[in-house]
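Sequence dictates fold. Below is an illustrative record:

_____
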Amino acid sequence: MQSNIIVTAVVVIYLLVMLLIGYLSSKKIESNTDFVVAGRRLGPLLMAGTLAATEIGGGSSLGVVQQGMESHGLSAAWYIITMGFAFVILTFLAPKFRAAMVKTVPEYFRRRYGKPSGIITSLIMFVPLIGLTAGQFIASSVILSTMLNLNYKTAVLIVGIVVTIYAIMGGLWSVTLTDFVQVFLIVIGMIIALPFGMNLAGGWDNVVANVPAETFDMFKGYNVMDVISLTIMYVATFTVGQEAVSRYYAARDGKAARQGSVLAAIVNFIYAFVPTLMGIIVLALINMGKFNAADFQDVGARYALPVLAMEAMPAVICGLLFAGIVSATMSSADSDLLGAGSIFANDIYKIVIKPSASDKEIMIVTRVTMAAVGVFATLIALFNTSSIVTILMFAFTLRAAGSFFPYVLGHYWKGASQAGTMASLIAGTIVVVYLEHVSKGNLFGLHFNQPIVPGLVAALIAFLIFSLVMPPKKQTTELAPEE
C-alpha cells in the first residue's frame, strides 16, 4: 500500500511540474509567432530534446514492449531505429525548412502553390492530428489506470485535462521545455528499469535461456523491405507533419536545425533497444512461470511494461519509470494538439473564415481549437480499443503520401506547379485509403505492409506529370508574400 502511495506521489508531482512549466512559459508569449514557433529561438539541444520527445511516444514505448514480448523479439527495435534514420536524412533538408520562414506546412503550400492547395493540405493534416492525439491519450491512460488502479476512463480524463491545459498555456515554448524534461525521463527511466527486470529473471543468461533463439533475430518481425518502408514513412511524415517540422521552423538558424536533427537521431538509436529488451524480459518471465500470461488477459498485452514494473522495481524507481512513460506519450500528444490548433487558426480560420483576423485573435483561435481537439481526442480515447501502433501508422501515412513531394521538391524545383500539387494530394490520399480500408494492402496482385510506399509512388507520378503538362506561370522557388 505504501509503495503504491509513493509511486502515485512521484507521478502526481511530475504532472504538477508539467503544469507549472506551462504556466511559466505563458509569460514568454507575446505574439502568434511566439506561440506557434517559440519565437524561432531553439538551439541544437532544445531542438534535439523536443524532436526526440515528440516522436518517442506511445507506439515507441508501450507498443514496442508489446511487440518485443509477443511476436517481434529484438527486431521490434526497428520501429525506433528507423526514426533515427529519418532524422539523419532530414539533416540535409533542415536548413531549407528553416529558411522558408513559415509557421505551418499548409502556409508553405498556400504561398508556394496557391490558396486551394493550402486549404486542402490543411484538411489532410488537421484530421490525422486528432487521431494521433487520441492515440497518445490512450497510451498515457493505460499507464495511469494500471499504476493507480484507476478506472481507464478516469485516467483518460486526467491525461486529457493536464496535456490540454499546459499546451494551451505556453504553446511551442512550453511544449519544448516539457519535452526536454520528458525525453530524459523516458530514456533514463527505461534504462534504469532494465537491471531490475533482469534481476527478477535471475540475470541475462536466464532471459536468453527462457526465450526462443529466434527472439534475437533482428529480422524476425521486420524484413529489409519493412525497414526501408518504415524509414520512408518516417521521412515523409516528419517532413510534412506539423508536430515535427514545426521544430525546424522554430530553430535559431539552419545550423541549429541540422545539429538538432543529428542529436535527435542519436537519442533514437540509443533508446531503440531499451523497450525491446523490456519486452523480451517479460516474455522470459512468462516462460519461467514468474508471470502468468493470464495476468495480461483482463488488461491487454499493452500493459506488459506496467505489470513488470510493479512486480520488479522499488516504489521510487517504479514511479520515475511511470512518469517517464506517461511523459513520452504526453510529449507527443501536446505536439499533436499544438499542430492541430496552429493549422486550424493560421490556415483555415485566417484564410477562409476571417482574413482580417489580427495576430492576437489568431492566437486565441489556436488555443480554442486546441481545447476543442483535446476534448474530441479524449472522447475518442474513451472508446478506442485499437492497437496504438496501428493508430499511429495510419495517421502518419494518410497525411504524408500526397504532400511529401510537392513540399520537398517545391524547395528545389522551379517547375513544381499548383496542378501537380493538387494531383499529388488527391492521388496519394486515394491510394493510401484504398490500400488501408478497401483492399487491405493488395494492389495489382502485390501486397504492401506499408501503404506509404505505393501512395508516394502514385503521388510522385501525378505530381511530375501534371507539373510538366500544366507548369506554373512563374518559374520560381520563392514563396509569395502573405496577404
In short: The domain at 2-388 is CATH 1.20.1730.10 (Sodium/glucose cotransporter). DSSP finds 20 helices and two strands in the chain. The chain has one domain: 2-388.
